Amino acid sequence: MKDKLTSCSNDNREVRLPAARGRALTRGLLWIVPATVSGASAFVVYADLRFGSSGASSALVDVSVALAALPLPIIALVCAVYAVRWFALATWPGWVGVVADDDRLMLRLGPFGGACYDAGRIEARYLFEVSADDVDEPYEAFLPEAEQMARLIPMLTHPDAPAPVRRTLLRFVVGDEASIAAALRPVIERWRSRRIA
């Protein structure tokens, strides 16, 4: 099956950042723990319920216990879904990650979906260019401008992006923020110069 995002790609100085499969595996393991604990607890609670009246039990009591314990299977199910998604990303058969070039930013994140954002509508601003009220990282905003540009990914926003693109990069791409920023810097500088011009 052909991937929808391949039609967005071109070869003009693209940067390919692979997804952090090891981090995805770790997150899957972290999500499977509460899923297992909640599921096992739910099994223990619901295995003893009979929902019938007898000398030893009452249907009303069993229904009350079942309702009181209802969050356990719900938590187990939600956590299991998150675990499966992270495990799927860790073992995804094709290439997963982020591709950036002069014209677009493509997110190819397997079970987490994908997107293709045109670079002309991406706004890239460093913390020193933003008012203090709009900054999530107040400490980093006080770093010198050159250090911010060298070590930090700028705030990347696009009208079609459901979440800040910077947060998505930090969540899914392999490496720390400084290495991601260094890899993307040439492309981001071209995006910024085009918007200024």
Could you describe the 3D structure shown?
The chain has 197 residues and is of the alpha+beta class. It folds into two domains: 10-19 and 94-196, no CATH class; 25-90. It is 49% helix and 12% strand. The protein is built from seven helices and six strands; from the N terminus they run βαααββββααβαα. The protein has helices spanning 21-47, 59-68, 71-90, 138-141, 145-151, 165-172, 177-196, and strands at residues 15-18, 97-100, 104-108, 114-118, 123-125, 155-157. The strands form two sheets. Strands 1-2-3-4 form a four-stranded antiparallel beta sheet, with helices on one face. Helix 1 (21-47) runs antiparallel to helix 3 (71-90). The two termini are 40 Å apart. Mean pLDDT is 84; it is low at 1-11.
* Beta-strand residue fraction: 5-15%
Number of domains: 2
**Computed structural class:** alpha+beta
How would you sum up the major sheet?
4 strands, antiparallel
How many β-strand stretches?
6
List SSEs in N-to-C order.
EHHHEEEEHHEHH
Instruction: Give the averaged pLDDT, no decimals.
Output: 84
Q: Which percent bin holds the helix content? A: 40-55%
Strand order of the largest sheet: 1-2-3-4
* Discrete helix count: 7
What gross morphology would you assign?
elongated
Task: State the end-to-end distance.
Answer: 40 Å
Low-pLDDT runs of 5+ residues are 1-11
If you compute it from the alpha carbons, what radius of gyration comes out, rounded to the nearest whole angstrom? 23 Å
